[in-house]
Amino acid sequence: MPVAIMPGTFDPPTRGHLNLIARAANCFDSLVVAVGENIKKTPWFPVERRVELLQASIALDLPELTDRIEVAAYRGLVVNFAATRGATVIVKGVRDGLDLAAEQIQATHNRELGGLETLLLLAEPRWQHVSSSAVKELVTWEVDPLPYVPAPVAAALAHRTS
């Protein structure tokens, strides 16, 4: 099976992200979770810390999949990074129609620029309302994020605000 890449900012990683990572990892022999920068966003955690948080969360919550999942930081265009890993498929999660519209445009660019196909996974209903932005808002208002983020992420968020 082809190698797949799942790019995102993951700032912070959520339980919805982990659900999508697990589902994608079960579809491919190898999944690269690519943690990147988004010039439109101001991150709470540096890229290296987000990589660490994802690795710790995957090890804790998805131990049976750790041998098939690589978490790596990247900079620049995802098509260029995908080429360095031999990936031929991009996997993205979609929560709603707004996500779908944005991902459709990105999928077209990635096919034109790098010949990559995009597989869109629909978010499970229990995670459709969870986003990194929503988690940040909850943390700002001192609401416990643990229902929405893996334990290592909750600890990092608590340390960030203390």
Automatic annotation (TrEMBL):
Site (Transition state stabilizer): 17
InterPro entries from the UniProt entry: Cyt_trans-like (IPR004821), PPAT (IPR001980), Rossmann-like_a/b/a_fold (IPR014729)
Reaction catalysed by this enzyme: (R)-4'-phosphopantetheine + ATP + H(+) = 3'-dephospho-CoA + diphosphate
Positions bound to ATP: 9-10, 17, 93-95, 103, 127-133
UniProt xrefs under Pfam families: CTP_transf_like
Residue ranges annotated for the Cytidyltransferase-like domain, each copy included: 5-137
Coiled-coil region(s): none
Binding site for substrate: 9, 41, 78, 92
Single GO MF descriptor: ATP binding
Location in or out of the cell: Cytoplasm
SUPFAM superfamilies registered for this protein in UniProt: Nucleotidylyl transferase
Gene3D superfamilies: HUPs
Record PANTHER family: PHOSPHOPANTETHEINE ADENYLYLTRANSFERASE (PTHR21342)
UniProt-recorded name of the protein: Phosphopantetheine adenylyltransferase
Species assigned in the record: Scrofimicrobium appendicitidis
